[in-house]
Amino acid sequence: MNVAIESSWKDRLKEEFEKPYFLELTSFVKQEYKNHTCYPPGNKIFSAFDHCTFDKLKVVIIGQDPYHGPNQANGLCFSVKDGVPHPPSLINIFKELEKDVGKPYPKSGNLEPWAEQGVLLLNATLTVRAHQAGSHQNKGWETFTDAAIRKVSEEKENVVFLLWGGFAKKKVKLIDGSKHHILTTGHPSPLSANRGYWFGNNHFSKCNAILVKDNKEPIRW
């Protein structure tokens, strides 16, 4: 099956595209987009991969679901399109970034510049029906994105995995901790952050310190 995804990922994930679960998933997603408003736009479904090639990948951030409000989701976890008000989790990410590395709070919530530098911003589920959080979960996306995480773990070394919240932390079983760096903290959502599980994690500076130690270019957050 021909899937419109960046070539370095396509080469590594081509076996997934032929599996029964993925064919069923494709059929489901096509019907959902045909019959309902869904996000992100069809050409942005694989944006996380398109903006961060396998070769330049050095950091992974895992989200759960795309935003389900109008004009928010752009295919990268926690990211929104230019000009869109920042959702609560993204606000807390930027607040922590400001405290951690001194970067002024940005106007745009579009995280494509992170992805272009080698940060894979991967949601476990890549599509969602409008206004229905979790509506495309357990349809096959998680199997596919788990396969992508395993590929990163198997074929690369010294990748920094930032696992935020309980859902992301469950992905630790897919990662070889003996050759990668795993940083965990609470989720940036207000529910978690306001209980003291997010702020002060210093993940952005810690991540860059690891990259520099491994002779890699730090991320310009």
What does this structure look like?
- With 221 residues, this protein is of the alpha/beta class.
- It is built from 9 helices and 6 strands, in the order ααβαβααββαβαβαα.
- Helix 7 (165-169) links the parallel strand 5 (160-164) and strand 6.
- Helix 1 crosses helix 6 (141-155).
- The longest helix is centred in the N-terminal third of the chain and has 16 residues, at 20-35.
- It starts with 6 loop residues before the first helix and ends in an 8-residue tail after the last helix.
- State the helicity in percent bands: 25-40%
Widest sheet, order of strands: 3-2-5-6
Largest sheet: 4 strands, parallel
The overall pLDDT, averaged over residues, is 96
Order of helices and strands: HHEHEHHEEHEHEHH
Low-confidence stretches: none
This entry's quaternary arrangement is single chain
Kindly name the structural category.
alpha/beta
Q: Could you give the distance between the termini?
A: 36 Å
Total beta-strand segments: 6
Strand content: 5-15%
Radius of gyration: 17 Å
Dominant shape: globular
The count of helical stretches stands at 9
Write the layout of secondary structure elements.
Layout: H1 7-17, H2 20-35, E1 38-39, H3 47-51, E2 59-63, H4 88-101, H5 112-116, E3 119-123, E4 128-129, H6 141-155, E5 160-164, H7 165-169, E6 181-185, H8 190-193, H9 203-213
Parallel strand pairs: 2-3, 2-5, 5-6
Antiparallel strand pairs: 1-4
Helix pairs in contact: 1-6
